[in-house]
Amino acid sequence: MPFPSPLRHCPNCGTAVEYRIPADDNRERAVCPGCGAIHYQNPLNVVGTLPVWEDGRVLLCRRAIEPRHGLWTLPAGFMELNETTAEGALRETQEEAGADIEMGPLYTVLNVVRVGQVHLFYRARLLSPEFNPGPESLEARLFNEDEIPWDEIAFKTTRETLRCFFADRRQGGGFALHDIDIP
User: Do residue 30 and residue 115 come from a single domain?
Assistant: First the structure.
């Protein structure tokens, strides 16, 4: 069965689907024996930012929701329909941190195959050190590298993005795009 969760019934007609390889494909798909529809399940995009204040501190949010309630993360969430990755990252930053930012370039692409997700983080410049976190965050605050609560980081994608950022900064700020596979 394909990951992350198997489709059991056809969204078009409600018939129980069968998993098989269609004649014109090379992968097992959910195929409806009732209406003939082939249903493709694709990875979900998680989009977010790595917001940085002018003194080099980064913005993290402490989660008010599951999964990983109470742990720290970069502002990010699932991309919505009818928005670009950058628009989604900006929206998530405003929703979770209440932060005013200027979007920068795409910084990390993290493939989390085991959960069917791709995480995309943009560097961003904070325009103010004032935050108004939304209901998904307990708090939002700035951290220097030596203040990061590494043992309380919610997700590997956040940890890897932060590690890349601080390593790039130590090497003179050549912030190249990082493509990372998360086991």
Answer: no
Residues 29 and 64 in one domain: no
Same domain, 36 and 86: no
pTM: 0.91
Q: Give the percent of the chain with pLDDT over 90.
A: 95
Beta bridge partners of 63: 137
Same-domain status, 79 and 130: yes
Three-class DSSP labels, 31-97: ECCCCCCEECCCCEEEEEEEEECCCCCEEEEEECCCCCCCCEECCEEECCCCCCHHHHHHHHHHHHH
Domain that holds residue 96: 44-181
Residues 36 and 66: their CA atoms lie apart, in Å, by 37
Q: What is the mean pLDDT of the chain?
A: 95
Domain containing residue 27: CATH number: 2.20.70.10
- Find, among 59, 78, 80, 82, the residue nearest to 139 by Cα: 59
